[in-house]
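Help wanted!
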Amino acid sequence: MATDPRESVLGEGDAVASGMPQLDPSSYPNQIFWLFIALIAIYFILSRVALPRIGAVLAERQGTITNDIAAAEELKLKASEAEKTYEKALADARSEANRIAEENRAEMQAELDEALKRADSEIAAQQAESERRIAEIRDSAAENVEAIARETALALVDALGGQPDSSRVDAAVNDKMGGTA
Amino acid sequence: MAQSEAATIVETGAEAAAHGGGSGFNIHPMDQFVVQPLFSDGAVSIFTVTNATLWMAIVVLATALMLIVGTRGRNVIPSRAQSLAELSYGFIYKMVEDVTGRDAVKYFPYIMTLFMFIVLANFLALIPGSFSPTSHIAVTAVLALLVFFGVTILGFVLNGASFLRLFWVSSAPLALRPILAVIELVSYFVRPVSHSIRLAGNIMAGHAVLKVFAGFAGALGVFAVVPVLAITAIYALEVLVAFIQAYVFTILTCVYLKDALHPHH
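Answered by r_m:
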């Protein structure tokens, strides 16, 4: 140690009693002088460089944040618009699909109706034809029955030993058959 | 000539005999506060470069390092150093705005100067072997008187004679007002005293206690572990005190400044 502090401070008068260098007035002018130098230096450091710079950085950050929020807001708006457009497109597509399905159904129904009608008419035609042919067959069958009945009657009369009289047999058969033939 | 904490502890023991202190506990906790020249042995005159000069210069450098070098990137997304600078800025700016009012932000650089000086001096003084400028009543009294005169002059300049209505409590019953005025007046003049002694006293007491325990540790040998643990705990407390005292000094400055700007209760 270059100096023994106690020699300068504690060595004299009342400073010994208190033992506090804080109460040694001989150091006051020195401390106060350097304190003013330090405060002025700090004040210039702050007011000339540091505070404007930090203030600018903070303002810039605030601006950036505000801009970003605005941009985000805009994008959100766009997104919701896009969603709306999408929803609308979807609804359109759905109604279009419904329309097409409806159309198809109607078309198919029409085709079906036509086919049914045609089938019905064909069926009706075939039915008529069939009925005509059945009637024909029945007619021919009735005639055959008459011929067979006449022949059978003749054969019976002959077998029974009678004299087959074809005109009487015919009359008898005709009488029995009535108007059914 | 750095006054190392460890060296002082050793010295305490070694010099005990020389000074005729006698006992093993010859502790000089106040030695750390002695203002002494750095480059000569002579007396301390006004322009002498002393340890006080050195540590105030370090405070100035630390301010520049923290607030200028730390923010040189000017990043929108701050680095750690930059966010420290921004944090201090925002802390004091908001304090001025909240306590004193929006119209007081033009005094923000002065208050920030006070805060940076005190908080950095307090923290740097916690480095072992350092000198604490804010433990000296000469320093804190000048700071407090700057605030006192600044606020008083500003109060009269801004409000004229109506600044005196600060002492006339118009919300109190008329009979009580003269008595209250005396009390208010006294308390107004006591402000710089409490303002300065609070800061110097806290810093000085904390550092002295640390040094006393360090002296115990030097004298106790193996049992030094107890004072060392105590020093650790007190040191943590002192870190807190270093910030809180700077905060208190600054916020009181804001409160006093508010009186100058808005003297009507």
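OP: Thanks! One thing I noticed: Chain B touches chain A through 57 residues (CB under 8 Å).
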